[in-house]
Amino acid sequence: MSKHHDEQGHAPLARGAAIGRYVVLNLLGRGGMGEVYAAYDPELDRKVAVKLLRARIENGVTITEGRQRTMREAQAIARLSHPNVIVVFDVGTFLEQVFIAMEFVDGCTASYWSHAQPRTWQEVLKVYAAAGQGLAAAHEKGMVHRDFKPENIMVARNGEVRVMDFGLARQIDGRRTTTPVSPPVTTTTAKFGEMATDGGTIVLHRRDGGASPTATSDNHGVVEETRDTEPSPSAGVDLFGARLTRTGAIMGTPAYMAPEQFFKAATDARSDQFSFCVALYEALYGERPFPGNNIQSLVGNIVQGNIRDPPPGSKVPFWVRKVILRGLRPTPAERYPSMADLLEALRKDPRVRYRRIAAGAMLALLPLGFGFGARQVMAERPPLCTGGADKLDSVWELTPADAPDGPHQAKIHDAFLRTGKTYAADVYETVRHTLTDYAQRWSNAYKETCEATQLRHEQSPEVLDLRMSCLNERLSGLRALAQVFESANGDVVQNAVSASGLLPSLERCSDVALLRAIVKPPEESEIQSKVDDLRQRLADLKARFDAGRWKEALREAPDLIERARAVKYDPLIAEALALDGFMNEKAFQGRSAEAALAEAYWLADSSRHDEVRAEVATQLVYVTGYQNHAFDRAQEWSHRAAAVIQRLGGHDLLRSWLMNNLGCAHFVAGHSDATIAALAEALDLKEKLLGSDHPDVAVSEGNLGYVLGRLGRYAEGLPHTKRAIAINEKRLGLNHPGLANELSNEGELLNGLGRFVEARKAFTRALAIFERELGPDAGLVAGTLMGIGTSYLAESSPAEAVPVLERAVSVSSRNGTDLLGRADSLFALARAFWESGRSQTRARRLATEARDLFAKARMDARLNAVDSWLAGHLAS
Fold first, then answer.
1. CA distances (Å), 252 to each of 34, 96, 141, 395, 537, in order?
2. Does the predicted model carry a pTM greater than 0.90?
3. What is the pLDDT of residue 56?
4. Which pLDDT score, from 0 to 100, does residue 515 have?
5. If DSSP codes are grouped into helix, strand and coil, which group holds residue 234?
6. Alpha helices, DSSP H only, in 348-423?
7. Rounded distance between C-alpha atoms, residue 408 and residue 419, angstroms
């Protein structure tokens, strides 16, 4: 994979690189001034975050100064030990840079936390009070942060809050730090979920995936310039305690800075208090307290104390606003004496006392009016969030496993049985279970999504629309597949179990960041209507493709792609191209598949359609590595796929298929150990996610058994193949071609182990299924006959091998698609003729015909084997 370089040409450190004793796992974020890596500490067996400075030499900032700045940050945090301050474990140097190893916080910034979903004022107050405790702890140690803002607060998944980035912190020692105003000051646009540090922006991709929502705010960036003097980071020098003097420096982020930071005035703990109140105000009201479309007007309003009125409909109590306004006063002496005093004021809700007084009086009155009032309200309130049941009823019934089929289920059951497939009843039971489970989870998600907005008021109407749109698309996919099943033919029944497992993930509909990130279609109603119509057609096409009607779907794909291009909506074009690529892969058109999938990837990339990116990159690993024999390209796509999957929040099922496809690519490239490792990881992921008897688990068990057999590790492969057989017997029935495939693989493994009688039993059982379900001339019939004939040859029973191998040659000749299978059969039949004492001339003629086919296919190893045999078997 080609590495992504920053603007100075630096490539990120690769996984496995060492920074001191820390082993790099992956890049969390980067910017012009630095990188943050997730890393592993082998000595203490823990995951850490390592910040590595990448200092610029332009704009007056030298590498030496950058090192000093990072050392100062490390020293600042290292002085603190508080639950609400990021923990620093270590500091050191790496080449020309300084690193700090700190606590790894699994979460997001307070800025992103505020925007991920609606928050009550009580929730906001709780998070910021915790952050305030961290600031208060710093102040008690004699330190001022000087760049407090929402991007420097981390909210962990478990709710814990940490203050980070003390890069501009300094010791309060009675000296005055002068920071005179000196335009020009730069204006930047930052993203929520990013960490602005030392003049650069380090993008922190969230572990739960998706891009962070963008905020275009006035003067949001950190503004700094050249420092006049700074002590060198020699031994014994306390860089944090050193007084910073700058000419024309504005230390911090203008939108959150106290007035004294813009002037030649001292900064102390009350400056942090001001910044804290700006951030808290923004989190509570959804806008910053001071208006200003440029730096001049912003600074003017800050120093004059011109604060906005609260937005209409705000639910923030007046007493909270009153506390914050005191913390925002222009003169430090008018603010609270300390952060501790401000936090104490925020804890004193005056309404609590009033409620206690009123509670006694209300207790006497409640019994009189409650019964009638409650009944009246309940009678007048219409039921909420029940629409999902009506939508689902038109597609599928949520009937218990032991209950009779509903109308839609009965149609599918009858259609499956009408195909005459002997395994149709078994397949139907598996499909019914899978679709019912999917429908139940859809129903639950619909209700939860609706109630989050309509009842619990936890999410905005905009988020409700995004999630419902996603769920409606999923329901369209379920409807399309059910309709295909209702008119099933034999191919559909054969592929029904795998098709049911390919319904798109419902969990993605809860990922608000992912849904928000995708570029929205144009607002014109006519275009939106076209997009909706084409997405429905895509769902229909995908359903037919997944269910085995892929040839007809492949014929219709070009027209659908052309219509999607005409709409000029990139996410839709990417979806259409992705489906076309999947279908071309199914048709063994590797080059066409690669071209369509690659274009789909880059269109999805430009429109932030990460789910399509992940699926397409995963499939490209298989297409490029296995079908097109280009391992380098497969490895590049695997890196891209892994990166997107991580950003999506893991997506273990897709990761399992990535490892499966990477294993296939390694196999073709001849990387035996890597093949086994990748396929074993895929199997492990699927078992943990799906359970031990899921059809997808059978696929991975079968793949691992087959590859181990091809590598000559028959004893290791046999248990995997037997497990695949057991799962398929349960899920597909005793007569499904998928089961026959595994039985044939079992025969190959048993042949390799010299257990020829058992091998023929497995082959014979597979042969009966293939002949009945696929026809007597199917290519798989020839392969199974070849396995039986080979077992006789290995058992020194060439006379028994001859008729079986003659039929294998005949079937493969009529089939005409498997030249290598035909060549193998010809060579095996040649040996059987020779060893049984039949015509030596015919034996040599068969071997020569096999040799020509191997030469045509450029199979050098098999060609050499035939040449060696011919040289040692001259006709008498």
1. 17, 26, 20, 57, 53
2. no
3. 46
4. 80
5. coil
6. 350-380, 387-393, 407-418
7. 17
- According to DSSP, the β-strands at 97-103 and 161-163 are unpaired
The pLDDT of residue 169:
54
pLDDT digits (tens, 9 = 90+) for 7-38: 455 678 888 899 999 999 988 877 555 788 89
pLDDT band at 65 (very low <50, low <70, confident <90, very high): low
Q: Picking from 223-237, 396-410, 791-805, which range would have the lowest pLDDT averaged per residue?
A: 223-237
Question: Which three-class secondary structure string do you get for 429-487?
Answer: HHHHHHHHHHHHHHHHHHHHHHHHHHCCCCCCHHHHHHHHHHHHHHHHHHHHHHHHHHC
Q: DSSP readout, 634-651?
A: HHHHHHHHHHHHHHTT--
Cα separation, 226 vs 250, whole angstroms: 10
Retrieve residue 590's tokens: 């590797």
Kindly state the helix (H) or strand (E) to which residue 536 belongs, with its residue range.
Answer: helix 525-546
The tokens 């050392």 sit on which residue?
71
The model's pLDDT over 362-412, given as tens digits with 9 standing for 90+, comes to: 444 444 343 434 344 444 444 567 777 778 888 898 888 778 888 999 999
Tell me the angle at which helices 652-669 and 672-690 cross, rounded to the nearest 10 degrees.
Answer: 160
Cβ atoms of 623 and 590 within 8 Å: the answer is: yes
Query: In whole angstroms, what is the distance from residue 678 CA to residue 315 CA?
Result: 54
- Respond yes or no on whether the N-terminal peptide bond of residue 184 is cis (omega within 30° of 0): yes
| DSSP label at residue 737 | H
Which H or E run includes 606? helix 590-606
Query: Given phi > 0 = left and psi -120 to 50 = alpha, else beta, which region is 398?
Result: beta
The pLDDT of 406-425, averaged and rounded, is 93
Element (H, E) at 24: strand 22-30
Phi-psi region of 292 (alpha: psi -120 to 50; beta: other; left: phi over 0): left
Tell me the Cα Rg of the chain.
34
